[in-house]
Amino acid sequence: MRHGNEVVVGAVIIAAALVAAVGTLWLKGTNWGATLERMDVLVHEVGQLQPGNDVTFRGVSIGRVRDFFVDSTGDAVRVRLELENAPRLPVDAVVVIAPESLFGDWQAEIVSRALFSSYTYFDVPPGGIVENGVRVLAGYALPDISRLTATAEVLSENLAVLTDRIGDAFNEETAENLRQAIQNTQQVSEDIKNMIQQQASTFESVSREVEQTTVEINATVRVARSTLEQMDRILSTGQVDTILTGMSGAARELDDLARNLREATDGLESTLTRVDSTFARVDRMTARIEGGEGALGRLLTDTTLAVRAESVLLSLDSLLQDFRENPGRYVRLTIF
User: Please, what's the b/e burial string for 223-248 (b: 16 or more CB within 10 A of its CB; e: otherwise)?
Assistant: First the structure.
């Protein structure tokens, strides 16, 4: 009986040890038979991240945080991840370390850099690098609540200083200046309004003139269109050819007339030469008469005869003037 109790106690102790071992392995995230892939993340700091925290992708847990330590360069913290049957990640994959819940649990979430492009990731080329067969991604850790509290405190202090400075700057004199500035702004607004109204009136007047000009231009265009249509009708009916033919005939007739005039002018020149000789003789005779020679000279001394002689001379002058202007009345030239 005693021997049986010892067996039972030993079995219970062994079972408890197995349960403890299995529970410990389970809490550490050990998965038997799963394919594990190692991945490293370089971040400036890890915040409240702890080994064993989840690694998520699109909200699904795909691994655990195995460990983290300060990198040998001293410029970053290297977080080591173990992924179970890792899915295909984005080309620009990065890791954001952030709180998982409001109870202090943190996680490492694999996301696309394009979703959170404003974060200051560690300087790793997009898509990561490979070191000794291990893929290395860039990461960023969100500030924890204590850091946010400290930042809020600094902001509160700065806001208090700003409030004091505003209180010092905004005194009675500032209020009066502000009131005057508002009044000046109102006056400027009124001036601008009046100017706009004047410009609107001017624009309306110009618009009316432009409209009238447009009407006149349209009338001119209609007249020009009518003229062009008439010209087109003339061209289409062949009247232009008739007009040009008539003009050609008239030009030939004018040429013949000019040739006849040239021939007549040649005969007229000899006639004018004889007329000039006659006028010279008349001038000599007139000189003798003015000298009192001959019967005509004596007539000049008699008033009655002088009046009659003057009339005769006027008639003669008219005759000579008409002869010069119309030689055809006195000279007959036959060309043909």
Answer: eeeeeeeeeeeeeeeeeeeeeeeeee
Q: Which residues contact 94 (CB under 8 A, 6 or more apart)?
A: 110, 111, 112, 113, 116, 119, 121, 137, 138, 139, 140
Asked whether 107 and 97 are in contact (CB, 8 A), the reply is yes
Contacts with 82 (C-beta within 8 Å, 6 or more apart), sequence order: 29, 36, 37, 38, 39, 55, 63, 64, 66
Token pair of 210 as six digits: 């432009």
**CA distance linking residue 295 with residue 191, whole number of Å:** 106
- DSSP secondary-structure letter at 89? P
CA 298 to chain centre: 105
Rg (CA), the chain: 64
Read off the pTM.
0.40
Q: By three-state DSSP, how is residue 40 classified?
A: strand
pLDDT tens, the chain, 336 aa long: 555 666 666 677 777 777 776 666 555 555 555 578 899 999 999 888 999 999 999 989 999 999 999 988 888 999 999 998 788 888 899 999 998 876 778 999 999 999 988 899 998 887 788 888 889 999 999 887 655 565 666 677 778 777 777 766 666 777 777 788 888 888 888 888 888 888 777 878 777 888 888 888 888 888 878 877 777 776 666 565 666 666 677 677 777 777 776 766 666 666 667 666 776 776 776 776 666 666 556 655 566 666 676 777 787 787 777 777 776 666 555 554
